[in-house]
Every structure is written in structure tokens, then in C-alpha cells.
Amino acid sequence: MGERVLIAEEELPVSGWRALLYPGGEYWWMLYLFSPSGSPEIYSVLKYTAESQLVIGGHRRREQPGWPMGNAGTGRGGRTGWALAYGAVGAEGPPQVRFSHDRVLRHVVREAEPRLLGGAVWLAECAGDYDQVRVDTRRRSVNRLLL
Q: What superkingdom does the record give (predicted)?
């Protein structure tokens, strides 16, 4: 087997993750995601029927405060962290991506601009404490919990 040619590479500034896209075969791409502290996650992304892969995955990290009263003493007010989601770009183009945080008496929604990786994969991230991601195209919506 010959040497693989890198199609696209993206470094995500908020989470520190790095994404690489390689050709996998005639009908798919290979998406490699590298976290700053772990082994890579590898996904096969279909080239033509990407609707079933609108959201491939998502991750989040919560930074817990160092003491029980939160970060009120430092003036930052509460938890911080980040949320990351990724999926395949369908025939309709890049989707609309929104991260949300649902709590009693407080619902926060933040829209994120997806970055395109080789025109085949979208990546979106934002700073903050979010529980789920909602991805919308003109014909379909998908909600995914972030773990």
C-alpha cells in the first residue's frame, strides 16, 4: 500500500484537538482526531451518503473549581470548559451548529461557526459548559448529548 496523502488538517484553538482527513477508499474518508492528552479517535466518513453521519461525535470538558464556592473569588463566576462536535457535510453544505446548556431556570444556547475540513467534514467548538449539540440542515435536525 502506498503512502497516504493528507487532504486537510485543522487545529482547534479552544479545545486543542487536531483533526486530519485522509482518503480511505473509493467511497469514504478517514478522519483522525487527536486530543491533547490521548490516543487518536479514527472514523470512516462516507463521501456520498453523509446524511446518516450528520453528527459523528462530540466531546466536552468541564473544569471544576478548586473550592466549593466556585470561581466567585477569582471573579470568573462558575465553571468553564469547552464543547466540541463534528460530522459529515451533506449535499446541502455545512449545517447550523448550536451548543446548549439546560439547567433549571437557565437555558443557554450558543451558535458556533463550523470549520470545514476538506469540504467533507465539519468541526465546531466553543468555550463554556455545554451539555448537548443541535445540528440543523434544511431537511433534518439532530441532537446529541456531549460526553
A: Bacteria
Strand order across the 141-145 sheet: 106-112, 96-103, 132-136, 141-145
- Burial tier of 109 (Cβ tally within 10 Å: 0-12, 13-18, 19+): exposed
C-alpha cell at 65: 473549581
On whether the CB atoms of residues 134 and 105 are closer than 8 A, the answer is no
pTM of the model: 0.82
> Under the phi-then-psi rule, with left for phi > 0, alpha for psi from -120 to 50, and beta for the rest, what region is 14?
alpha
8 Å CB contact between 71 and 102: no
Per-residue cell: 19: 483533526
Q: What is the CA radius of gyration of the chain?
A: 17
Encode pLDDT of 91-137 as tens digits. Answer: 888 899 999 988 777 788 999 999 999 988 999 999 988 999 999 98
- For residue 112, which phi and psi values (nearest 5 degrees)? -125, 140
Q: What are phi and psi of 54, to 5 degrees?
A: -55, -40
In whole angstroms, give the CA distance from residue 28 to residue 11.
22
